[in-house]
Amino acid sequence: MARLGICKYLLSLAVVLFVSVHIARAQCSEETIKQMEAIFIQNFTQNEAMAPMCLHSAFHDCWNGCNGALFLPEEIDRPENAGLPPLKPLLMPFTSQFPCISIADLINSCAVTALKFLGGPSVPVYYGRLDRGVPDPPGLIPEPTMSLSALIGAFNAIGFTKENVVTLSGAHSVGVCHGIPMCPGHNNTFGNHYYKELIEGDFEGKLHTDIELLEDNTMRSLVQQYANDQQQFFNDFSEVFGKYISRIHCNQTSTGPCPLDDIGVPTSAAPSPQSAVPSFSEPSFGPPSGPSFPTFDGEPSAPSSFSPFGSSSGPEFFPI
Ligand SMILES: *[C@@H]1O[C@H](CO)[C@@H](O)[C@H](O)[C@H]1NC(C)=O
Ligand SMILES: *[C@@H]1O[C@H](CO)[C@@H](O)[C@H](O)[C@H]1NC(C)=O
Ligand SMILES: *[C@@H]1O[C@H](CO)[C@@H](O)[C@H](O)[C@H]1NC(C)=O
């Protein structure tokens, strides 16, 4: 009998744990997310630099597992993030208007909305990213000057293939350069023109890692396929980028790169029980407990030790 009691207790505990994990992942209702996306789109329309910035910022925030640390002053002011600081004051007001969302989810919600807004494919959205609250260790994000083989090695370490590097490089089809030489993006339409330009030898604004995609037979053949077939590029980008931004349950205290084997669950397919509640009055399950962010007053306060390359005269985005 006692054993049965324990079993029942464990079972109900498991149910409680399952339910609370589920709720913790579905922090914002679908209705809230829709409202947020509508505001993103209004903002994109008013500020054409914002959508590409959101897309690129997801790459940066998620390299070490999507964790919102990109917006910490110590991290956003690093040279590899040059070009992204203007995004922070545009996005931070959302956190007070939508307290159910973590910064990591905010960045990625903006990114997938931006991708669609720019004419790109839909990406399955996962919610439940936790904010790390402390900066990622410096030096994890690949440097823009890195060779293609080193870049591929860095992607392999987080579970992505060299073909995936070709696919993700397509994000360079969009971007706004502010007088920064070698800025990879120059078009406000997400599409396969990036691959066409590579094939045609139009290397203006390309990074050397872009150009080197042509030097490997497997990669060049994929570049060619994408140049011929935008739909294939869109299908692959949706899948690979979807994986990339879904590495959300990484060990938040680890100092190593976040591996791929830790994918989130789609909450859009499993709306939270609160989805019928109007968003502004919905009970908040977040922000996640854990260290809170120090300041968001927008004043850069990065220690100079984070600027080993001096002022940011390099490319605006790291080379993916
Ligand atoms: C974004 O759009 C909302 C709704 O129109 C507006 O209130 C807000 O000021 C906009 N933010 C920026 C930075 O333009
Ligand atoms: C921008 O992208 C669109 C869609 O892919 C393409 O048709 C156009 O040629 C591109 N413009 C430039 C300047 O690359
Ligand atoms: C997380 O990473 C830290 C540091 O690498 C390690 O000590 C800890 O055991 C890890 N925790 C889990 C749950 O893997």
TrEMBL record:
Q: Please tell me where Ca(2+) 1 binds in this chain.
A: G65
Q: Where is the signal peptide?
A: 1-26
Query: Which Pfam families does this entry report, sorted A to Z?
Result: peroxidase (PF00141)
Spell out the Low complexity composition-biased ranges: 268-284, 292-320
Q: Which PANTHER family match?
A: L-ASCORBATE PEROXIDASE 3, THYLAKOID LUMENAL 29 KDA PROTEIN, CHLOROPLASTIC-RELATED
Q: What is this protein called?
A: Plant heme peroxidase family profile domain-containing protein
Q: Does the keyword Protein biosynthesis apply?
A: no
- Describe cofactor binding as the record notes it: Binds 2 calcium ions per subunit.
Tell me which family the UniProt entry assigns to this protein: Belongs to the peroxidase family. Ligninase subfamily.
Which residues are listed for heme b binding in this entry? H172
What Gene3D superfamilies has UniProt attached to this entry? 1.10.520.10, Peroxidase, domain 2
Q: Which PROSITE patterns match?
A: PEROXIDASE_4
Question: Which cofactor does this sequence's record say it needs?
Answer: Ca(2+); heme b
Please tell me whether the keyword Cell membrane is annotated for this protein: no
Which residues does Ca(2+) 2 bind? S173
Positions of region (Disordered): 261-320
Tell me where in this chain the Plant heme peroxidase family profile domain is found: 42-243
Protein keywords: Calcium, Glycoprotein, Heme, Iron, Metal-binding, Oxidoreductase, Peroxidase, Signal
- Which SUPFAM superfamilies has this protein been placed in? Heme-dependent peroxidases
Source organism superkingdom:
Eukaryota
